[in-house]
Give the backbone structure.
Amino acid sequence: MSRQLQRKLFIAAFLVPTFLFFSVFVLYPVAKGAHISLFDWSGSSEHMTYVGLDNFKEIVRDPIVWKAIGNDYFLVLGKTIGIVLLATFFAVAVTRLRIRGASFFRIAFFIPNIISIVVIGVLWRFVYNPSIGFLNSFLSLFAAEPVNRPWLGEEGTALWSILWPSIWAGIGFYFLLLVAAIMGIPASLYEAAEIDGAKQGRQFWTITLPLVWEQVKVSVLHIVMTTLNGSFVMVLLMTEGGPDNSTQVLGSYLYQMGFRQFHMGYAAALGVVILIVSLLTTLVLQRLLRRDTVEYS
Amino acid sequence: MLNQPSRALKAVAFLILSVWAAAVLYPLLWTFLSALKDNPQFLTNKPWALPETPLLWKHFTYVWQTYNFGSYFMNSVLVTVVSSIAAIVLSASTAYVFSRFEFRGSRLLYVAYLSAMMIPLILGLIPLFFLLDDFGLINKLGGLAIVYTAWAIPFGVFVLGGFFKSLPKELEEAAYIDGAGYFRTFFQIMLPMAKSGLVTVTIVNALNNWNEYIMGTVFINDPTQYTLPVGIAIMQAEMQYRTEWGPLFAGLLISMAPVLLMYMFFQRQIVSGLTAGAIK
């Protein structure tokens, strides 16, 4: 066998099985999802009626969709601000402030990131449980009479109550990302700053932040994308979108429309909307966050 | 040091870090303590009270048997092991080709794998359900393992592609000169060198698949085939209704234990693997 043929055979043997698998179970379903969005289909019947862009026209007129988009962005904004601020503070503290026990904090803070979202959901439902929950029992210590607030059951508090566990569960990952970035900054820069008499705050703004901006940017984009694509799981586990759609996000609405009400076409169209929203948002953000990346020479 | 951070600043920072550490670690301890309580303790005592003696260790055997957590556990092990192995085989082979061979369309194909990491899974969820149904794989652990494998491929291709690229080419070239074929060179020389990368990717995949919920709950509706996350999500509703809180917490602990153990042993790989996937 010629060398050339061997090479071709090797490449084919190593590429084709993977690509087949990937095409059938990833590419095809995604493309098919876009295709189904053009039909009216209940899933069970053989009748798929082509309706063009009707599903999308209906989506634009659906008040729940707009509410869900608003909630998606509420979670995006809340998570981004909460996680980036806290993770940055923690990362600076364990690196630049030379806090004792830094390695302990690094090991501990990552733990929520390895726990299943289902377990996190159940635990936090116990925090919010009206009668035996942590939060109410704690607040009751300071109140004249026992607090019985159904945090997840009231429209005013439900979405906020989903935001906290999302921040809690997310921080460790970005914290470690930033720790690694800060540790990569040459010590000589800080030494020079100290000789010039720059205090911690000034060092942060003039050295640390500019030099880890790339990682902050990556973190923000990653938080935004994973929230728009995946926050619905937390919603499904905590409230299923209720009460009265007050915590509905696009993903949970898709789940409800598809797997509870069997409007498969409409649900698929919602999936396309999620993709568009998440791509557009990351594109716009990438522009906004563009700032000359500083490199240390 | 000329300019030590001030004592006050350090003290405040340490306090805040400690509060967060407590917020992260206490739920684990609390889950454990709660697993040993019975209902009256939940209803009358404060949630943070310690369990009364005798400690109710029997809750663990109770969920394991009566609530079938034993079977969920085995299902999770099966799906996790099969899909993690399949994913590493499929992604390592393709990643190696990308890192060493140029051919027509190789760039495009690589970009296709990369962009798949940005596609929301939920977009493919409905078609996947019907696809698995056509293959007779709904309510089958095999179906779930196949889907987990396929969706783990882009991550593996990305991380391992970078890993293979970082390995020196000299050994391969020497092997080719000695007359070794492409296959032998890969299996005997490259694969052993890539061990740490393979381990990292496998651990991350195993972790993700062990914890995965949404595909599990959509594709599996047969209680004998539930994985742990699916079983917990469904049982928690039932157990709260029947107010069997203690056993529920025992169940949570059973599902977390393997992951926490893995984290203890493979902390470095888990962290580096998960963060590598984020930086595309």
Notes: Chain B has a mean pLDDT of 89. The CA atoms of residues 1 and 55 of chain B lie 53 Å apart. The first helix of chain B runs from residue 7 to 34.
